[in-house]
From TrEMBL, chain A:
Keywords: Glycosyltransferase, Transferase. One of its GO terms (molecular function) is glycosyltransferase activity. It is an enzyme of class 2 (transferase). Its EC number is 2.4.-.-. This is Glycosyltransferase family 4 protein.
Automatic annotation (TrEMBL), chain B:
GO terms for molecular function: methyltransferase activity. GO terms for biological process: methylation. InterPro entries: SAM-dependent_MTases_sf. The keyword Mitochondrion does not apply. Residues 274-286 have a biased composition (Low complexity). It comes from the Bacteria. It holds the Pfam family Methyltransf_23. Residues 274-301 are annotated as: Disordered. This is Methyltransferase domain-containing protein.
Length: 417, 301
């Protein structure tokens, strides 16, 4: 079977890594002809993903000249290029509901949501995504394929290394700039702990972490380096607001670390409170710090959670098993008739209307603000205002303005409400 | 120690054999009603033979195993005249094609059983595709089972893939939407029977001659009524409680072993420190000239 995975780029990210692993398994174990189609002009060299060497990578122009059995969008933006490829079947590999990554009033949000209305088959990696999709798009074929774990890299220890007296070793990972990763919140929680602890933050840019707020700041790390770090850690602390399959704690589980997490989407795929990890409440830094203090004090509980984390990891599929399900899913999609072309049309129309209404509201708000600002704008267009502005910017006048600052601040505050 | 005997044989643990035979017993009415029966991963045919309960199967059976000798044994257990033994590796497209070829494309009633087989296959995609394809034929039914081995911490070396709730959900997504799901539960139980009758196999439950757990004695006017049919009571095993207990024990063993080791190290260090202190406190054998000038031992270790 000839398969195309559409990607924005091959930069380091969990989502891209998952696609590369599936593509690799399809080639090496199932004999499929797989192409990674990069839909954007590439500015940076690709990340050195394991297995990338086995894959054929090409740009959209080259891919347009080929014919595929199955073409797969892997991110909402790549769906814009999906139908530019000639293929028997079109698929969206849904790793999360991607509209949630954007603020409410951004243009990307409704656009990412509307992609879910396309007449395609879906493959998803988490139960919660499959269940939500079944409600949103009951007409859409949806197959479920969990992400595997590279058990050669995340090689579980034969026996657990029990730590009795050392500070609790905590790992926080993620991009601090991404609001939903909760990295700063996690660091704050660890700082609020009372018991001895050692915090390692893994991030691509160490400059984003305030000096002294963590015992170690490392990264970016390869999977093997990440595995080694998890292996020397007790707890993976993850307070993300949005997750798809929620991979990092599972990687930690494989190396014998338990986790403290918020009940983010995807957590219940494998985390069981009090069995293999602790699930804390949203926006409860004090409670989360207490949960970590508990683990630092009660090493018997910590050992129990870590033992069960390891047990959970043992039952998690390898990439080989996961790749087999992906192969079976794609073969089924190719074998079955395509979804009807009008599938999702009703939802598409509803989403378009919603986007229209949202845009209308925004325009209305903007016009209202413009109306309110009109007198001020009129003043700004006067010659007197322009002269005043020039005077304000004159170096000689700066000490005067400085003296007047409390007064001008009060006036500005009154004007802006 | 777990005994990883993957083929069901005469000496297989009774509880394992019972659950194996029960799966075939569930399929038995459909097997008898079908003109063709295909058993994928048939093993030595013990379960299938028990399900047919000694009654001759009127249709044609295709018994498939990776090993020809094992498939032959299964054919013998069911009746050679009615059964064809086929050696095929179901983990490969070629092996699956062999089965497809052996079954042909006839549309007469067909039952396919595939119990505890998928977890042994590196690549189960071709087999699942075949099962779905066969089930789509008129008059065809497929019954398959996978273990819930995700529930246990110990890895079975014969299983190449892991089957828990998640994997079952993944498999279900590949099957026709109207498939039926049944759960098989482990039971604990007890039976009371007349020892003379318990071995004849007529009871709804099999009581092999063996050592009873208790002996009941009845006498008096009504004692005879106890000599009737055996009675039994079964309850579902609390697998979850057992799992919790086992994991707690495992983690406690680890924790306390480490704690004891740490305590022993501390004790050894304390003993050594005490010995050094004692040695330091002891008056050093000194010469007569030095004895008067030597400072008193401080006693600090």
């Amino acid at each position: 079977m000839k398969v195309a995975f559409l990607l924005n780029d091959l930069q380091l990210s969990g989502g891209v890594g998952v696609v590369v692993q599936h593509a690799r398994e399809l080639v090496l174990r199932h004999g499929h002809d797989v192409t990674l189609v990069l839909v954007r002009e590439q500015e940076a060299a690709p990340w050195e993903f394991d297995g990338l060497a086995h894959l054929h990578v090409e740009g959209l122009d080259d891919a347009r000249r080929e014919r595929f059995d199955v073409a797969i969008a892997t991110w909402w933006e790549t769906a814009y290029s999906l139908f530019e490829l000639e293929a028997d079947r079109y698929v969206h590999f849904l790793q999360s509901f991607e509209d949630r990554f954007y603020d409410r009033l951004t243009a990307e949000r409704p656009a990412a949501a509307a992609i879910l209305d396309l007449p395609v088959s879906y493959v998803t990696e988490a139960t919660w995504i499959a269940e939500t999709l079944a409600r949103v798009r009951p007409d859409a074929p949806c197959l479920f394929v969990r992400n595997g774990i590279d058990k050669d890299v995340f090689r579980s220890p034969e026996t657990l290394d029990v730590r009795l007296d050392e500070p609790l070793r905590i790992v926080v990972e993620g991009n601090p700039d991404v609001w939903f990763k909760g990295v700063y919140e996690s660091i704050g929680v660890v700082r609020a702990m009372r018991e001895p602890r050692h915090l390692t933050v893994v991030t691509g840019d160490a400059s984003k972490i305030e000096p002294g707020s963590a015992d170690a700041v490392v990264g970016p790390l390869t999977h093997r380096e990440m595995a080694a770090l998890y292996g020397s850690s007790d707890v993976v602390l993850k307070l993300s607001k949005v997750e798809g399959m929620f991979g990092p704690p599972l990687e930690g589980f494989h190396m014998g670390a338990t986790c403290v997490v918020a009940p983010v989407t995807g957590f219940d795929e494998y985390i069981e409170h009090g069995w293999n990890g602790l699930v804390v409440d949203w926006d409860d830094p004090a409670g989360t710090a207490r949960a970590l203090d508990l683990l630092a004090r009660d090493r018997r509980l910590l050992t129990f959670l870590r033992t069960n984390a390891l047990e959970t990891a043992r039952s998690w599929p390898t990439w080989e098993q996961s790749g087999t399900f992906m192969a079976a899913a794609l073969e089924k999609i190719h074998r079955d008739p395509p979804p009807p072309p009008y599938a999702g049309a009703r939802q598409l129309v509803a989403d378009s209307r919603l986007a229209l209404e949202t845009q209308r509201l925004l325009m209305h708000e903007r016009n209202e603000y413009r109306r309110l600002a009109k007198p001020a704008l009129r003043v700004k267009q006067t010659t007197a205002w322009r002269r005043l502005k020039r005077l304000r910017e004159h170096p000689a006048m700066q000490p005067v303005w400085k003296l007047m600052r409390p007064f001008t601040r009060r006036v500005r505050s009154k004007l802006t409400g | 120690m777990p005994d990883w005997q993957e083929r069901i044989a005469d000496d297989t643990r009774p509880s394992i054999r019972a659950e194996h035979e029960l799966r075939y017993a569930l399929a038995a009415p459909l097997i008898r009603a079908s003109t063709r029966w295909c058993d994928l991963g048939c093993g030595s045919g013990i379960g299938a033979a028990a399900a047919l309960a000694g009654k001759a199967y009127a249709g044609r059976a295709l018994l498939v195993d990776r090993e020809q000798a094992v498939a032959d044994r299964a054919a013998a257990a069911i009746g050679r005249r009615r059964a064809v033994a086929l050696a095929a590796d179901l983990a490969t497209p070629e092996g699956v094609a062999q089965v497809r070829g052996a079954l042909g494309d006839r549309d007469d009633p067909l039952l396919v059983t595939c119990f505890e087989t998928i977890e042994h296959l590196d690549d189960f995609a071709p087999l699942v595709a075949l099962l779905v394809e066969l089930a789509a034929r008129p008059g065809a039914t497929v019954v398959l089972s996978v273990p819930n081995d995700a529930f246990w911490a110990i890895e079975n070396p014969h299983h190449t893939t892991s089957w828990g709730e998640g994997a079952v959900e993944e498999l279900r997504a590949l099957l026709p939407a109207d498939h039926v799901v049944l759960h098989q539960f482990a039971l604990n139980g007890s039976a009371i029977a007349d020892p003379a009758e318990s071995a004849d196999g007529s009871a709804a439950f099999a009581l092999a001659p063996g050592v009873p757990s208790h002996v009941l004695l009845a006498f008096g006017d009504g004692a005879e009524q106890f000599a009737g049919a055996p009675v039994a009571r079964v309850v579902q095993s609390d697998v979850e409680a057992q799992r919790r207990w086992e994991r707690q024990r495992e983690s406690d063993l680890l924790y306390y072993a480490t704690a004891v080791k740490a305590l022993e190290e501390r004790l050894a260090a304390a003993e050594q420190a005490a010995a050094e202190a004692a040695a330091a406190a002891a008056p050093a054998p000194a010469s007569d000239d030095e004895a008067s000038d030597a400072p008193a031992a401080s006693g600090h270790a």
